[in-house]
Amino acid sequence: MISKSPKPLTPPKPPKPPKPPKAAFRVFLLKALPLLLVVLAAEYTFGQRFLIGGDDQVDRCLPDKRIYIIDTYNKDIWRGDLMAFRAERMAPYFKDGKIVVKIAAGVTGDHVQVDSHATQINGSIIIDGLPLANKLKQSPSTFNRDEAIPPAAYWVTGKAPKSFDSRYWGYVYDYQVIGRAYAIF
Fold it and tell me: 73-76 long-range contacts, Cβ below 8 Å, gap at least 24?
């Protein structure tokens, strides 16, 4: 019998050494940088124009809405639009400067009538009564009005009867308007 000599054992090939950390980081940067630039450009473009806001109140004036997008470039508000504005004269419910979203129920020139039974705009009932008058420690007759909405002003309201709105503190003026609001959820 002829004996074969065993093949010399060759050591297994060593695994490829991992890329040095610097090289892996460079590859990551080359892939991530374009994505980062796109995200930053989108944020700059849309972040300048839009705000996202939420209503965390227990008693909301717009009961079926919680999250809003506010278009700060669109200040062309029409009757029935949702509008965002900075609060003024709205104590004790809102501090001056707080962003508030309400419905523009009336615009410049519309006729407003408020009494203890209802608020009317151009003869149509918008919301009933003055349920917060007692909480504000005021007689309902304090809030009576029968007037035209002045230039550059809006009459705003919510949908809930206990909405703290123009019935109690008056008009929202153009300089307070942040933009048109859109309800998301």
Answer: 73/49, 73/179, 74/179, 74/180, 75/174, 75/177, 75/179, 75/180, 76/180
